[in-house]
Amino acid sequence: MDRLRLIKKTLLWLLILFELYFFKVAQGKFNVLYIMTDDLRPSLGCYSDPLVKSPNIDQLAAKSNVFLNAYAQQALCGPSRTSLLTSRRPDTTKLYDNSDSYWRIHAGNYTTLPQYFKSHGYTTLSVGKIFHPGIVSNHTDDYPYSWSVPPYHPPSFHYERRKVCKGPDGKLHENLLCAVNVTEMPLGTLPDIENTEEAIRLLRLMKKSESPFFLAVGYYKPHIPFRIPQEFVELYPLDEMILPPDPDVPQHLPSVAYNPWTDIREREDVKALNISFPYGPIPKDFQLQIRQHYFASVSYVDAQVGKLLNALGDLGFGGNTIVVFTSDHGWSLGEHGEWAKYSTFDVATRVPLVVYVPGLTSASQGSSGKPFPFVDVFQEPSKQLIPGHIVKSVVELVDLFPTISHLAGLHAPKECPQPSNHVRLCTEGESRARTFYRPETHVSEEEMAFSQCPRPADTPQLNSDQPRFKDVRVLGYSIRSSQYRYTLWVGFQPDNFYANMSNIHAGELYLLVEDPDQDHNLFGLGGYEGLSHSLGQQRSVVSQWAEILQHHITCLNEHGPRKQDLHTCLKHSPGV
Ligand SMILES: *[C@@H]1O[C@H](CO)[C@@H](O)[C@H](O)[C@H]1NC(C)=O
Ligand SMILES: *[C@@H]1O[C@H](CO)[C@@H](O)[C@H](O)[C@H]1NC(C)=O
Ligand SMILES: *[C@@H]1O[C@H](CO)[C@@H](O)[C@H](O)[C@H]1NC(C)=O
Ligand SMILES: *[C@@H]1O[C@H](CO)[C@@H](O)[C@H](O)[C@H]1NC(C)=O
């Protein structure tokens, strides 16, 4: 009897301690440092890239949750950023291009992630590229709704598309490859260097502030042009560069799925190569140089992140600041004969997602703790760091809003009803906060990421990469599970936003166990019959999950691409 009472009492105490701990985590007002990169796929040491040198991001990852399978909702800056920041999909923000509309006017008065923090007493600050500039954020980066003070834009960005790149002829050009001597640049600096300096200045100001902060720092690289300090290129000798394993356009890729990388062709150095439209290819030696400059740009961004995180620690914020590191989407580096973004391939939609929560993803740091001292990539030999907590489940950028809110101790917004245009605060993603409290025991095959991709026509056109909204005629809807990618390209009418799921122009199906690079499209030419046919042929490969896949496809065809409807359909299915 006594022993039972003792056990009961101990359990009660444990429960109280447990609650106190989580109460503290939930109520302690964490700051948020939200670091966004532009066009960065997970070519990073902490994502097992064998070539890329990213010691500072790796060091962050070693104390963080590292989401191995995170996906953007569209591989284009404007739509992806608006989607991430409002936690709604392109179909709900009604933004599929970079220049068409401002969601508050044309879709709904949706609350953004920084706005939500601002409404809870945070000082919210934007440095560099967070919202896509121009019409899509009302020419103000959504100030004053999202930010406490007007967003900062680095003055040297003005020269980003000027003739400032020294070519082999010794003259200045507007080139794709643009390794520069920084002291010779107009203003003697570069935009991301200015971003880091401004962000550190703001952190110092926040030291004196009473309120917690949400500081968003948006780096411009590795977005083209590769205007970067020349020393970073030397980290990647050209004779060590290799092409991807699948440098050719796949045989059964539908022409609507192909993106002709028009923005690359416009640069002077690429134009001079007389590459044929739409399929190219780019000469091999130039492909290797693009890869070299992309990787060098990643190391340049890594150095900026390192300086910023070093300052965070110096100022005593290392123990009470959540750090998020991600990107708006990926970038093809010659895989499938493609470059740039603008597609539904993983190389274009998959992003790095690293989230550090002090005391949760790493031991609590006191106010004097410096969790991330700067690592100089030129001085220190690269060492293999093990990422903190790996999360393999498929997650989406729309999940960030509820996840970060929850981790910071605010309530995660509720799931959106359908339609949700009248609802200011809700999410079309879901909170992934539980992955921070409990280790992942298995990877759910039902977790899926959804992406969209607009096209003006079934064959590659000059505007196929970025059609204006009024020119969109085909919309690609893509599902990415841990097992497959399935994409339907369907007819679309911009005047009434109508995607006709029974007007199928083309399809793609890749079974990732067999074909992780997505080179063998199994969606037959004959629509569904072709699909069943290909599935039939692949029975042995897919036997374990063929039924689930078939069922997903049936649900998709019956309910359209909305995730919630799909989930309902999946739940109510017999036999799954
Ligand atoms: C939009 O919402 C913001 C607060 O989130 C509010 O201040 C503003 O008045 C709203 N605008 C309209 C047109 O309803
Ligand atoms: C967008 O900007 C214009 C011009 O500055 C301003 O008049 C308008 O109120 C802004 N729209 C919203 C929804 O705030
Ligand atoms: C960069 O340019 C400055 C000014 O022209 C020059 O003094 C310096 O030597 C250059 N640095 C390199 C590494 O070329
Ligand atoms: C590209 O075409 C131009 C004009 O036809 C020609 O002068 C130039 O030599 C060509 N360049 C290459 C690399 O073939």
From TrEMBL:
This is Iduronate 2-sulfatase. Its cofactor is Ca(2+). Its main location: other. Its EC number is 3.1.6.13. Monomer. The 58-kDa mature form is composed of two chains resulting from proteolitic processing, the 42-kDa chain and the 14-kDa chain that remain stably associated and form the 58-kDa intermediate form which is enzymatically active. Belongs to the sulfatase family. It comes from Coilia grayii (Gray's grenadier anchovy). GO terms for molecular function: iduronate-2-sulfatase activity; metal ion binding. GO terms for cellular component: lysosomal lumen.
